[in-house]
Specification:
47% of the residues lie in helices and 23% in strands. With 100 residues, the protein is an alpha+beta fold. InterPro entries: ABC_transpr_LolD-like (IPR015854), P-loop_NTPase (IPR027417).
């Protein structure tokens, strides 16, 4: 569906973001042994991104799943992660447990 005539651009963007939420929920329901997430909250506002990440971590913790996540928010990684690998210009620059 395109954002044209019938559907204003803002409404179209809302539905596009809802699609991302639905895809994440479907993956969580499958309960795979590990979640491989490539920026699962990109293009979401900060509050929504935090809620989504907290739910992913809570669900994985209850199910005994591991999470490997690529992200650009060091604050979120420090708050939610246990281990962090930082890659800059194609080289590993940090490889350590997260300190809280």
């Amino acid at each position: 569906m395109k954002a044209s005539g019938f559907m204003p651009e803002a409404l179209f963007a809302f539905f596009a973001n809802q699609d991302r939420h639905i895809r994440i929920a479907r993956i969580l329901l499958l309960r795979p042994p590990a979640l491989l997430l490539d920026e699962p909250t990109s293009s979401l506002d900060e509050g929504t991104a935090e809620r989504i990440l907290e739910r992913i971590v809570r669900s994985a913790s209850r199910s005994g799943q591991s999470i490997v996540m690529i992200g650009h928010s060091p604050a979120a990684i420090r708050r939610l992660g246990d281990y962090r690998v930082t890659i800059e210009a194609g080289k590993v620059t940090e490889d350590a447990e997260v300190r809280r």
